[in-house]
Amino acid sequence: MKRLVPFVLVLAAVFAGPAAAAAAPKKAPEAPPNATVKIKLGHLHGGKARILSTVPVIGSVQPFVPNQKVQVSFFLNGKGIERRTVKVSRGKGDFGAFRTKIRIEEAGKYAASARHTATSALGADSTLRKSWRVSFPSLHESECGNVVVAFKKAMRKMGYVANDGRCFGGKTARGVIAYRSVNGMTRNGRAGKGLVKKVFAGRGAYRVRHPGAGTHVEAPLSKQVLVFAKGDKAVAIYPISSGKSSTPTVTGHFEFIRTEPGYNSHGMYYSWYFYGGYAVHGYESVPDYPASHGCLRTFIADQPEIYNRIQYGEDIFVF
């Protein structure tokens, strides 16, 4: 037994010392490959998309791995408006492909970007924002379509009158006359590109002069319009022709006191009187300048609606 002890100690030294010193270092796990994300925009003309059109965002991710997803973000005037998670499908080679779209419903500068979040199989990557602006068409009477419908909706939101349906009718043209009158533009029914753009942006509303009067009527003679208001909101605005310089319209605060339905002997149509012989009435001639004998002339086509809007004793401010 005395001879065996040194031999066992020698074996322990051989296997414990050198084996521990020669142990191989652990291999670090390989990092996933980096992703490369790209996008391009469709349906643009000169860097612009027509209002109410759809802009597709077409993208790719390299390499492709199963169950890939990207986040596509949309911006309007620099502010994020929508974010979507989009599935990536297998494309050609080792590329993945994805696609989404956005409908253009407002004026402004739009942008889109895409981002791949890092996973255990693939690294992260983000694209720069790709931007575009919105173009607007001119609109004319008898024109129909989605843009006309949206234009009329935007007009009504500011209180300007417009006809129902999908087409640009005479009532909408008179609403455009009122819009132009309020905003110091040439007085006609043409809705050019610039005007359409402003309307879609909600610009050009009438500012109510007497918001504390509740439900009332205003006739700002410098603007040649008749405005029905509820508090500080204009709810219906019509073009008019007021008294010419030799027979000016009386100014002040009045109440509606008397009606005269139908035509009278002077050709006045469905009249509402507010002071003596001064009335709001329809007439066959409503030029783009003050031309009446003192009354507030409206278009014959508008007057039945105006007549039914007015109530006995309702306030009217002429200034």
Strand content: 35-45%
CATH fold-level assignment of the largest domain: L,D-transpeptidase catalytic domain-like
The gyration radius over C-alpha positions equals 36 Å
Instruction: Give the CA-based shape.
Output: elongated
Mean pLDDT: 92
- Please give the domain count: 3
Adjacency order of strands in the biggest sheet: 14-19-11-12-13-18-17-16-15
In terms of structural class, how would the helical and strand content be classed? alpha+beta
Q: Kindly, what is the distance between the CA atoms of the first and last residues, rounded to a whole number of angstroms?
A: 128 Å
The proportion of residues forming helix, as a percent range, comes to 10-25%
Q: Could you spell the SSE succession in H and E letters? A: HEEEEEEEEEEHHHEEEEEEEEHE
What is the C-level CATH assignment of the largest domain?
A: Mainly Beta
Oligomer: single chain
Explain this structure:
This protein is an alpha+beta fold. The protein folds into 3 domains: 36-135, Immunoglobulins (Immunoglobulin-like), CATH 2.60.40; 136-205, PGBD-like superfamily/PGBD (Muramoyl-pentapeptide Carboxypeptidase, domain 1); 207-319, L,D-transpeptidase catalytic domain-like (Beta Barrel), CATH 2.40.440. It is 18% helix and 35% strand. The protein is built from 5 helices and 19 strands. The chain has a 9-stranded mixed beta sheet with strand order 14-19-11-12-13-18-17-16-15. Strands 2, 4, 5, 8, 9 and 10 form a 6-stranded mixed beta sheet that branches. It has a 4-stranded antiparallel beta sheet with strand order 1-3-7-6, with no helix packed on it. The protein is elongated, with a radius of gyration of 36 Å. The chain starts with a helix and ends with a strand. Residues 1-5 and 7-15 have low confidence and may be disordered.
